Amino acid sequence: MTAMEGLPVDLRAFHNEVEGHLLATAAREEARSAAARFAAGLDRLAETERAEVERQFAAEHLALSRASWQRTARRGEELRGEYEAVYRRLRARLLTGVLLGVALLVAVDLVVLAAR
């Protein structure tokens, strides 16, 4: 059981929105930190040039993170579809097996009753 299973839809949507904002904030901070580390090694740049390099690096880092998240989300959707299809087939096979078993039991009961 997950923490969100018991929540009403409105709270679940709110939780997802807050989580999204927190993830985005963390990604922006990670991009800024990576940009600062990268620019720190560029000693020959003027302060304004270094700031511009940091800004561009952070923007590119954030764009790459966003693209990665989108690919991950698409793949998750694909996998969900695949797993749902497999689940439906397994459920149909199980139902078929149960129905055949019940039919076999009924047939055996009828044969036993007819033999008496």
Question: Could you explain how this protein is built, in words?
Answer:
The protein is mainly α. The protein has two helices and no strands. It has helices spanning 9-40, 47-115. The chain is rod-shaped. The protein starts with 8 loop residues before the first helix and ends with a helix. The mean pLDDT is 92.
Properties at a glance:
116 residues; mainly alpha; 2 helices
Write the layout of secondary structure elements.
Blueprint: H1 9-40, H2 47-115
Structural class: mainly alpha
N to C succession of SSEs: HH
> How would a crystallographer describe the biggest sheet?
none
General form: rod-shaped
**What proportion of the residues is helical, as a percent range?**
over 70%
* Count of alpha and pi helical runs: 2
Radius of gyration: 29 Å
Compose a concise summary of this entry.
This protein is mainly α and 116 residues long. It is 87% helix and 0% strand.
